[in-house]
Amino acid sequence: MKIRLLSISALALGLVLALPATPALAQAAATGQLRSPDVIYVPTPPEVVAAMLKVAKVGPGDVIYDLGSGDGRIVIAAVKDFGAARGTGIDIDPQRIKEANANAATNKVTDKVRFLNQDLFTTNLSEATVISLYLLPSLNLKLRPKLMAELKPGTRIVSHAFDMGDWAPEQTLDVDGRKVYFWTIPKR
Question: Do 64 and 153 belong together in one domain?
């Protein structure tokens, strides 16, 4: 009897494994991605990058994490143009990580930046003094409890285009028709 149950379970498992994956999962598996991206890659314009880093008062001693870092432009600008001590870009798409590493090499900042092919919802963010985002409102809301739990009070958060629901920003900028939002993790 036990042998028969085991063989039925093995057959069921074989059928599940043989079923085709969804197109997004199949593409993620084919490209080496951890899972399919939550958003499409849209680069932040240079003037918005500069405004984000300026409103966050990025400078020496800062450790910036860019969540959904794309080609690395925000992290690179933070260390190259604003003097941040270090920067880390997190992106789930390995192609974006390759582009970011190439851009870091071109800009001669590979000693101060790193790009990790990770899921931003599972990456430890606790060493960041600045977090930058260009996600969607639903992702910002999903990420908010993680930011509140992991980040130290005083950590600055800046977002291109999207807010965080009922968490009112301390500043909102308009940069050539694009919004930039700024918050600080409050004292506990």
Answer: yes
Count of structural domains within the chain: 2
CB atoms under 10 Å from CB of 159, counted, come to 23
SS3 130: strand
**What residues does 115 pair with on adjacent strands?**
89
CA 49 from centre of chain: 15
Facing residues of 56 across strands? none
Same domain, 108 and 18: no
- 90-145, pLDDT tens digit by residue? 999 999 999 999 999 999 999 999 999 999 999 999 999 999 999 999 999 999 99
The SS3 call for residue 50 is helix
Instruction: State how far the Cα of 49 lies from the Cα of 56, in Å rounded to an integer.
Output: 11
